[in-house]
UniProtKB/TrEMBL annotation:
Subcellular location: Membrane
Residues that, per the record, bind heme: 423
InterPro entries assigned to the protein according to its UniProt record, in alphabetical order: Cyt_P450, Cyt_P450_CS, Cyt_P450_E_grp-I, Cyt_P450_sf
Family classification: Belongs to the cytochrome P450 family.
SUPFAM superfamilies referenced in this protein's UniProt entry, alphabetically: Cytochrome P450 (SSF48264)
Primary location group: membrane
Pfam family, one: p450
Organism for this UniProt entry: Oldenlandia corymbosa var. corymbosa
Membrane disposition: Single-pass membrane protein
GO cellular component terms given for this protein: membrane
UniProt protein name: OLC1v1022749C2
Length: 477
């Protein structure tokens, strides 16, 4: 009997291990690579490379070593890095939540909330995306071009006119945040906007960080700021509810629009958490991405006289067609074709969003390998943007490559995502970018104070010293 018990004690653990291993995909079919140290993995290496502006090389070295698909560990989770047109299609074309789901790192999820579009899937994603799109679609945004222009004009009067030197990136962040506050949140008070922006800027600092919630860490500070932002937004929602009860129009701002849908007894309604979490997402995406885009366009124009002259000619023609005090219109924006091509080429070369994540719901076969259930999939925007097999002479800045976007293969140019996952704020970003550029180009000339082309990612691109420029007012248009 003692021998039997001893055999059971010896064999039971072995049988358990064998059964567990049978549930795993064959080891030779898991992508090559290393998961590195527990929790940390390759997170610190990637973050250091991003801040040193060597992240693309860091990933290129992985591709050279392992091929276009490899395993690693990022932000505490086993991850598979995928690269190429087929990889982008895998990420963006899949709307089947039974295979792959929206998924962000634990730090992003804890800071922005689990009911934002980056986390929702299936019918929930479709429902909330539809609610946001009801305000952000072009037909709705046409009415707000003048309001956006007023914010741009006020900003230029306060921070640009009469100045010999300005630092562009922080000013662009100031501008885009004020546009968001006005158009999306309906906040007109400068003091109140300042209260929001202080907490918001602290909140986004830790979105790409190792999720260790210890005092004095960046992640800890971001979590505290996130809680304060959510409290501010809950108070704002209550105010907007009262305004709606008093007869305020539901289309006066995004929050009022979402609250109107929230109040409906229908399958399309959105919860309060969904409103707050997606407002926070829009704050992060709309504030940082547009400000980075405008900043880098100004740097491109300073470094490329031919491109600058073409943009200036286009914008001067539009300015001359307007009478004094007349606002830009939707039709004026449609005439800014070359300016928008410059913006698209800037997005190709300097994409604000470095990459993102998905999560497998079941084993996925891709590229001859198995991506196991529950693993992260990590995709990177700039890898296909700089692929010489997709874009000829990718190191050359050439807006004319966007003469016909139909000539660019699908799922190769993805600064706003693609397919059913394309960013619902695309048109909003386009409008504020074109309106801001119109006034900056027609009113000023500028020269870079730091002519180097260095930038770090933290996680957004940040040029040297925020890109200070010497300003000269234009005397005529």
């Amino acid at each position: 009997m003692n021998i039997f018990i001893a055999l059971v004690l010896i064999l039971f653990p072995l049988v358990t291990i064998i059964l567990k291993r049978r549930k795993l995909p064959p080891q030779q079919r898991i992508p090559p690579g290393s998961l590195g140290l527990p929790l940390i993995g390759q997170s610190l290496g990637l973050l250091q490379a991003m801040r040193a502006n060597t992240a693309e090389k860091w990933l290129e070295d992985r591709v050279k070593k392992y091929g276009p698909i490899s395993k690693l560990s990022l932000f505490g989770k086993p991850t598979v890095f995928v690269y190429g047109q087929d990889a982008n299609k895998l990420v963006f074309a899949s709307s089947n939540s039974n295979t792959m789901t929206n998924h962000q790192t634990q730090s992003v999820r804890m800071i922005l909330g689990d009911r934002c579009l980056l986390e929702l899937n299936g019918e929930d994603h479709k429902r909330v995306r539809g609610a946001l799109a009801s305000f952000l679609k072009p037909e709705s945004l046409k009415m707000y071009v003048g309001k956006i222009e007023e914010e741009v004009q006020t900003h230029i009067q306060m921070y640009w006119q009469g100045k010999q030197q300005v630092t562009v990136l922080p000013l662009m962040k100031n501008l885009t945040f004020n546009i968001i506050c006005s158009l999306l949140f309906g906040i007109e008070s400068r003091e109140r906007r300042n209260e929001y922006v202080q907490q918001f800027q602290e909140m986004i600092q830790g979105m790409w960080s190792i999720p260790v919630n210890l005092p004095f860490t960046r992640f800890n500070r971001s979590l505290k700021a996130s809680a304060k932002v959510q409290k501010l937004l809950k108070d704002l929602l209550q105010e907007k509810r009262q305004e709606l009860l008093k007869g305020a129009p539901s289309n006066q701002d995004l929050i009022s629009c979402l609250l109107s849908i929230h109040g409906e007894e229908s399958q399309d309604s959105v919860s309060e958490d969904e409103i707050i979490h997606n407002v926070m997402l829009i704050m992060a995406a709309g504030h940082d991405t547009s400000s980075v885009l405008i900043t880098f366009i100004l740097r491109v124009l300073a470094n490329n006289p031919t491109v600058y002259e073409a943009v200036l000619k286009e914008q001067d023609e539009i300015a001359k067609s307007k009478s004094s005090g007349e606002h830009l219109t939707w039709q004026d924006l449609a005439k800014m074709r070359y300016t928008w091509k410059v913006a698209l080429e800037t997005l190709r070369v300097y994409p604000p969003i470095f990459g993102g994540f998905r999560k497998t719901v079941k084993d996925i076969e891709f590229g001859g390998y198995i991506i196991p259930t529950g693993w992260q999939i990590f995709w990177v925007t700039s890898m296909t943007h700089a692929d010489e097999h997709i874009f000829q002479e990718p190191e050359k800045f050439d807006p004319d490559r966007f003469d016909s976007q139909a000539s660019i293969p699908p799922y190769c140019f993805v600064p706003f995502g693609a397919g059913p996952r394309i960013c619902p704020g695309y048109e909003f970003a386009k409008i504020e970018t074109l309106v801001a550029l119109h006034h900056l180009v027609t009113k000023f000339k500028w020269k870079l104070c730091c002519p180097d082309n260095f930038f770090k990612r933290d996680p957004m691109p940040n040029p040297t010293k925020g890109m200070p420029v010497q300003l000269t007012p234009r005397t005529s248009t």
